[in-house]
Amino acid sequence: MKINPPKINYLEDENLLKAYQLDEFANFHFKENINEPILIENHTFDGCVFDKIDFSKIELSRVDLVDVIFDGCDLSNKVFDEQLISRVVFKNCKMMGTSFIQGSLKDVRFENCLIEYNNFSNTKFSQVSFENSSLTDSTFLESEIKDIEFLDTKLNGCEFLKTKLKGVDFSTCDIYGANFDFYSIKGIIIDSFQCSHLIGMLEVIVKE
Predict the structure, then answer these.
(1) Are 175 and 191 spatial neighbours (Cβ–Cβ below 8 Å)?
(2) For residue 3, which phi and psi values (nearest 5 degrees)?
(3) What is the distance between the alpha carbons of residues 166 and 160, in angstroms, rounded to a whole number?
(4) Is residue 164 part of a domain?
(5) Which of 75, 112, 123, 191 has its CA 20 to 30 A from that of 81?
(6) 38 - beta bridge partners?
(7) DSSP state letter for 4
(8) Which residue segment(s) compose the domain that 15 sits in?
(9) Which of 111-120, 125-134, 174-183 has the lowest mean pLDDT?
């Protein structure tokens, strides 16, 4: 699946606190953490790179992400509900309890990320990839999926409910403990070793 990468051209190294004071978050490379709590709201992060930034002291409210790279960042418990996330890469990030409810994800790649207990309810996915990551105990409820791929990803305890997954390939993933309702499970692609889990989930008894 082709995913359009972030369009990042000129980048200027900038201190995150200074950018906050300037009220400007475009075309910057952030490498320094801040030591005091701040609230960033009603903004778009545009053409930025966040390098090993800990967002635990940064509250985000109504923030869109366009052409952004997060590398080695901690975005745990951040809220991106109802926001646009377009041409974004999350790489080596910790994202425990992050929320994307009713968000729109287009051309987004998650690589080597800890994405556990995330909420993707009513989220729209178009050209999104989860690779070598953990989505343990995350929820996909009434999600709208156009193009999505899961590669070598842990889906233990993950819930897929009222989410059309026809043609989605889970064959390289660990789906033990994942929960699919009848609507979601139709047409998914798995390998022979994953059959036993799905058969058990459907309460089918195999007679030997």
Answers:
(1) no
(2) -120, 120
(3) 12
(4) yes
(5) 112
(6) 58
(7) P
(8) 8-64
(9) 174-183
